[in-house]
Amino acid sequence: MSATANLHDLRQFVLSRLLPAESLLARGGEGARQCLAQLTEAAKATGLWGAYHPTGSAHGPALATYLPHAEWEGYSEFGPALFGADVALDAHMLQRHASPVVRDRYLSALLRGDLVASYGMSEPDAIGSIPATLQACARYADGQWTISGRKWFICRAAQAGLVTVVARTEAAGVATGALSMIVVPTDVPGFRLERPLDILGGQLGQAEMTFDKVVVPADFVLGLPGQGRALMQERLALGRMLRSAHWLGLTQRCYDLLCARITSPRGELARLADKQLIRRHVYEVHAAQVAARALWQQAAQGLDAGQPDEVAINLAKLTASKALCLAADTAIQIYGAEGLSDALTPLAGIYRHARASRILDGTDEALINACGRRLLARQQARQAPQHEPASTIF
């Protein structure tokens, strides 16, 4: 399905089928899993599955045209999983960089929704923004990779049948300490799911896992051995864009909720719409949302043109995160105590996502620092004196 699919159908599905099921989905357990599976099958049957899945080409549909669809997928915190958006990033990476063996074995299952994938980069004893501190290692010998290490705060870990592991490579012909990405099925000996990790008291699918001398074939590496850093940058760029597009959907949800509260009978009783501070809240959330959308589109156009701009991508992620945090916090403030209860509104769950957005896929500080460094370098390049060639006297 293309990103230009009928948004009316998607909107109706979200409003009439997904939102009424949110309270059940939020409780977790077998009932929630069955409900999500039923909704997923219904989404597939109505052509609403996989809007940004890769197609026959290496890069798939245009990212810039995906935003309206992504926002409706992200209007509920359960939407990205239901509509197949959660697997899009791993599917693109396999399409572009996996060996024919790995693509043939796993890509179709991933795109059908029969397989869940996760990405193992973060480690308990490493600094997330400094790849040089990663300690998981992969040794190559006799046509096989042997992988050992620990990873944590891994999304979708409990359901994953496949993990792309970032490991320090030890192989002939590869620089010592170079990183590689290696695909690991979770049913191999030595893989162990250790424990779930909550996010602000809620379960968002994060977990810790270990690899104890896990063995996979040589062609399970993505790209070439030692290309891990470049692939990490590529994955982070697209991943930040996809996540932030869904965050903009959650931002719109919070904006709709706070406006609905202001104009509700209780809001009218309190004359909320007449209060200047309330109007300022509405303005600030709206302005943050509009700015984040514009910056996202600018970054998406660069990626679609094959010219990804690190500053534009980081700005898109940072401003989408900031807009979501502001919208969730403001909506909770407008609702008062009701906004703090999972039993009464979806805002507490959205707030957990919002706060996590400042850490996932790069902390605010790391991205702001990278933007500042790059912007200063660009400015210095512009200001460098342009020496004219010396005149030649004949």
Automatic annotation (TrEMBL):
InterPro entries: Acyl-CoA_dehydrogenase, Acyl-CoA_Oxase/DH_mid-dom, Acyl-CoA_Oxase/DH_mid-dom_sf, AcylCo_DH-like_C, AcylCo_DH/oxidase_C, AcylCoA_DH/ox_N_sf, AcylCoA_DH/oxidase_NM_dom_sf. The keyword Oxidoreductase applies. This is Acyl-CoA dehydrogenase. Residues 119-214 form the Acyl-CoA oxidase/dehydrogenase middle domain. The keyword Oxidoreductase applies. Keywords: FAD, Flavoprotein, Oxidoreductase. Belongs to the acyl-CoA dehydrogenase family. Its cofactor is FAD. It comes from the Bacteria. It comes from Parachitinimonas caeni. Residues 226-376 form the Acyl-CoA dehydrogenase/oxidase C-terminal domain. Gene3D superfamilies: Acyl-CoA dehydrogenase/oxidase, N-terminal domain (1.10.540.10), Butyryl-CoA Dehydrogenase, subunit A, domain 2 (2.40.110.10), Butyryl-CoA Dehydrogenase, subunit A, domain 3 (1.20.140.10).
